[in-house]
Automatic annotation (TrEMBL):
This is Nuclear transport factor 2 family protein. It comes from the Bacteria. It comes from Rhodococcus tibetensis. Residues 14-118 form the SnoaL-like domain.
Length: 137
């Protein structure tokens, strides 16, 4: 059985950056300089731009709570998949009116992880369309 270094790296990221109390500044220690995230079909390139994206996203959800449901890796730990959910209250997510409505977002993230545990990239798919429709109904 292989050591779960990839799972540990991703779960550490979730715990430090997204779980309460959120600390997006931990990104500086956890991802490579040329990190790339593809979210909603859009690529965000570089650690600084990713960190700015996280700060902006977190500002749109009040009382943000993040739960990693399940995280698993390939045999060498270089690829990690994680299922997650996020709850909170609407403070303008997706450009909507900040009306305090409940937020429930679920998603899947697929990561590339270096052997030293640094995160190289992430591709995220989430139920954004369903959430947007509910918030704007």
């Amino acid at each position: 059985m292989t050591v779960q270094h990839g799972v540990r790296a991703v779960e550490n990221f979730w715990a430090r950056v997204w779980q309460s109390p959120q600390n997006p500044h931990a990104i500086d220690e956890l991802v490579v300089d040329d990190f790339v995230i593809v979210t909603g079909g859009q690529a965000i390139r570089g650690r600084a731009d990713f960190k700015e994206w996280v700060l902006n996203f977190q500002a749109t959800v009040e009382d943000l709570e993040f739960i990693a449901i399940e995280t698993f890796q390939n045999s060498d730990g270089s690829r990690v998949a994680s299922l997650w959910e996020m709850t909170g209250r609407n403070r303008g997510i997706m450009g909507t009116e900040p009306d305090g409505q409940p937020i429930h977002l679920t998603g899947t993230a697929v990561w590339n992880v270096r052997t030293d545990g640094m995160l190289e990239s992430n591709r995220v798919e989430r139920n954004a369309w369903e959430l947007y429709r509910r918030l704007t109904a």
